[in-house]
């Protein structure tokens, strides 16, 4: 992704889960983030809210943010259904008026809004609808399962639970350890971070597996692909996307992501299954098409002390019999150790 100077809009919703786009961009693109625009949280220290972003100011108005010479306004939330909050239209028009690119990860496409499109055209401003899929997608053809590379997919107990961050951290740790690895973005925030990918939750259902298959085939020369998961195959709202991802990626290894204390799925009155059930379901769904197993658990221990997080990691290891970690707090070593035998088995060791 080209260098930008981003103001991230979260108005009233700044938080690790309520503004997960903002939180991830601040974690992985902090050098390009000049301010967060949130009147409710203005003046607070960003690191006290997100545990990241030290020194990045939280301001109340776009006028204040303009003092930091931004190039882009980023919509920093992912609402249920991806709908643009109506009261955000004014600040988006204000950004366009000042010549700022607008980066939008919602399902509401700014380029399809006559008012935004006309205003942007008049000012020569780019509106980047990150979730807009390519127009030439096809159905999945089951072309990936025989590739010689190793494919890892992060899967979840729920949506917004840490699949993207786990995938990014595993990719970075693998490259640091000498793997020829690449993070494959399948959601709007991952695309903003990586600079490429397809937001599969906007793709027509028949083409989801084909879209993921395309991403994998374009990167088939890589030794290791770490593919960003979406939703969960057990979520009543998002299961179709999750299943299409699983079939299109044809991974040999799954990393199960969970947040301690998350007992009910987001936005629906459904209990989160236990680890045994989550592992069983994912492996059983994949088994008829390709060999696949959960090799490790990645925990999102946001808000927990290091001591409490370590105890939870140890507890999950005992419960599942699998290596576990919090990739942010403790690194991805246990996950890479779990992947090493698969690397050797495929003849990928240098």
Report on the structure:
With 350 residues, the chain is of the alpha/beta class. It folds into 2 domains: 6-129, NAD(P)-binding Rossmann-like Domain (Rossmann fold, 3-Layer(aba) Sandwich); 150-345, P-loop containing nucleotide triphosphate hydrolases (Rossmann fold), CATH 3.40.50.300. It has 13 helices and 12 strands. It has helices at residues 20-28, 46-50, 62-65, 89-97, 114-123, 163-176, 188-194, 208-218, 239-249, 275-286, 306-320, 327-330, 333-345; strands at residues 6-9, 33-37, 58-59, 72-75, 101-104, 127-129, 150-156, 181-184, 224-227, 253-258, 293-299, 324-325. The strands form 2 sheets. It has a 6-stranded parallel beta sheet with strand order 3-2-1-4-5-6, sandwiched between helices. Strand 4, helix 4 and strand 5 (101-104) form a beta-alpha-beta unit. The model has no long low-confidence stretch (mean pLDDT 94).
